[in-house]
Amino acid sequence: MASHTVALVPGDGIGPETSAAMQRVVEASGADIVWDVAEAGAHLVEEHGTPLPASTIEAVKRNKVAIKGPVATPVGTGFRSVNVALRRELGLYACLRPVLSIPGAGGRYDGVDIVIVRENSEDLYAGVEFEEGSEGARKLIALCEEEGAGAIRPDSGISVKPISKAASERIVRFAFDYARRHGRRKVTAVHKANIMKHTDGLFLRAAREVAAERAEDAAFEERIVDAFCMNMVMDPAQFDVVVFPNLYGDIASDLAAGLVGGLGIAPGANIGDEYAVFEAVHGSAPDIAGQDKANPTAQILSAAMMLDHLGEAEAAERIRRAVRAVYAEGAHLTADIRKATGSSKPAASCTEFTDALIAAF
Ligand code: NAI
């Protein structure tokens, strides 16, 4: 088996705990991974002046592949989110979030197997904002009035929603490529083009064009985002690969995670042309940090995605099999899952869960 070096960014909050659990499980899977550990997080601000030191970005670039724990965004310090900064710096334009039912994890549905593909670089997350009363906001309001584009109240704050043809085509192509490579049958594009004709409308037109070129890869369908949410709650099994502009993709990821058992089991990846960073959907969970209570499943399943990416499909599948076995058996599940399943059995710690997982290999 080939040896791979990957950057490991444990992060903060529960990150160091879930990362340590993940490392133990990857080792037990038989994969030969060398960890190049780099730091990110609010605890570095005092010493480095930033939660994301240049050496950490360098470590990811050097190894091309990274797995990271969550990193809290310090509120009120003026620092940009580490996650947004990393995605920008490394050109990670696609956010990939598989949503899979795990029997025993307390999901509302069985048989869900959806892959969410979220555009990661633009939309309302571009960070272009004007505070209410600022010169920028006043100018924009005046421009809209001049253009007859509709009245905006003078005390409005404004966030700009840029959506480009190039980035829309790129993400939809990514979704079709993924569908082809993984034997998926259908790609659904989600939008609100009936209201936002020049942004979501552009995304939808790009999606239709790419779909027409890629008809051999997968079938194509469209859903308006509000209808999509209702469809998800009523019958999520109807979806396969679903591609979104940034904001809807973010919201839909959490919605989907909630349907199959919650954030504790939802893995993810941020992927670009050169680099890939694997990470759970959840945040740093400061309410349970340092207490050995966190559910490491999401980061462990993110590691399985990483192993697939590295060509170590067998080790990845061994991990997924062990996860399914521990949930099916049900004796060593963490507090979040006990709550989701309404079980009064005692909760396992992060360490106990990880021990059980390793014993299931
Ligand atoms: P969160 O995901 O950290 O927590 C939400 C709730 O879910 C909390 O009750 C938490 O205890 C629970 N939870 C989350 N992950 C869990 C796990 N693995 N096991 C058991 N319970 C878990 O979201 P929140 O509170 O909105 O954000 C906290 C911090 O995390 C913020 O500073 C935010 O900016 C950051 N964040 C970082 C992300 C990343 O690094 N990728 C993603 C999302 C948020």
From TrEMBL:
PROSITE patterns (alphabetical): IDH_IMDH
InterPro entries the record matches: IsoCit/isopropylmalate_DH_CS (IPR019818), IsoPropMal-DH-like_dom (IPR024084)
Positions of the Isopropylmalate dehydrogenase-like domain: 5-357
E.C. numbers: 1.1.1.41
Signal sequence region: none
Keyword line: Oxidoreductase
Gene Ontology molecular function, alphabetical: isocitrate dehydrogenase (NAD+) activity; magnesium ion binding; NAD binding
First-tier enzyme category under EC: oxidoreductase
Top-rank taxon: Bacteria
Entry's Gene Ontology BP terms: isocitrate metabolic process; tricarboxylic acid cycle
SMART domains assigned: Iso_dh
Oxidoreductase as UniProt keyword: yes
Family listed: Belongs to the isocitrate and isopropylmalate dehydrogenases family.
PANTHER family: DECARBOXYLATING DEHYDROGENASES-ISOCITRATE, ISOPROPYLMALATE, TARTRATE, ISOCITRATE DEHYDROGENASE [NAD] SUBUNIT ALPHA, MITOCHONDRIAL
Protein name per Swiss-Prot or TrEMBL: Isocitrate dehydrogenase (NAD(+))
Native source species: Eggerthella lenta (strain ATCC 25559 / DSM 2243 / CCUG 17323 / JCM 9979 / KCTC 3265 / NCTC 11813 / VPI 0255 / 1899 B)
